[in-house]
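One record is given unchanged without comment:
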Amino acid sequence: MQLVTAGESHGKALVGIIEGLPSNLAIDIEKINKYLALRQSGYGRGARQKIECDKVEIVSGVRNLSTLGSPLCFAVQNKDYQNWKGIMAPEGADITQRTLTKVRPGHADLTGLKKYAHTDARNILERASARETAVRVVAGTIARQYLSELGVQISGYVKGVCGIRDNKVYTFEQLEDAKKSKLFMLDKETEDKAVKLIDELKQNGDTAGGLIEIRVKGLKSGFGSCMSYNQKLDAILCGALMSVQAIKGVEVGLGFGCANLAGNAVHDAIYIKDGKYYRNTNRAGGIEGGMSNGEEIVLTCAMKPIPTLMKGLDTVDYLTGEPAIASTERSDVTAICAAEIILESVTAFTLADVVSKRLGGDNMQEVIERYKLLKD
């Protein structure tokens, strides 16, 4: 299963093409739009979210809300394009307007200008923008529907914001309540502190990142491989999650905590009852030897603060070589809730790809039957 994305932040539309979907997968467009709306929600978001109201348009590969087995093409229109048409139109535009040469630290601006031989960082930032993740939410929600047919569920919550952290442990079923809160957090007291901090950062023209926990329930053992390094499930998942803008680190299970503990406090003892293996702990985060072990997969992702600061950092003007203050584009104080939805979606699509490679199947009936034959 492969996804190709295209589109610029202020271009006509964001487009995605998924190859490898089996036929007869029911597509719930309302659910896709629900996750697109969640991606635009959350405390600390900027003005762009008031302009866009993302909706998916299925272009091909689906008939009567069911996949055909052919490539599925979809688009998310950019409403803001009407305000940028004269600057961004492929057919011809005034590229002297809204140029960006005071390159922003923490962005792709400077390195992108050098790599692609441009002089206007708009040619870089329009594609490097996290606006691209709207496409990945659409693809991930379609993949989520594929996985749900097999009994695999994905959820998550915001674990911390700029050092304010919730250290409680929650059941998978509790996680969905996070979507009802301002910051997708589960502990009200912790969330109130985080909201207060975000307000202070906004007044200071600053930004915040945080921690996001993603969980997967219901995936059987044996997905991934211990035989080939490039098929290890943890490596595949971590690589995919790190491809999301602003994600700077991913932990599986205890993650870096493993380095501070002795072996008997890290590894999960194995038991058997009625012929079924189980563990009383899940410090491995559901992955051992590069393979799913049947327990919940637990992934914690570190998101850096948004690098567009309203009080710009010191930088250099790329054209003149003179010292400058970094340019500012419209920005959020934090997009931690958006990141949570995006990371769920990326996890879903990545797992769907891993599952489809193992199971094959040209139609969903074949996929479901093959999954049932696997051991838990």
About this structure: The first strand starts at residue 2 and ends at 6. The two ends are 23 Å apart (CA to CA). The mean pLDDT is 95.
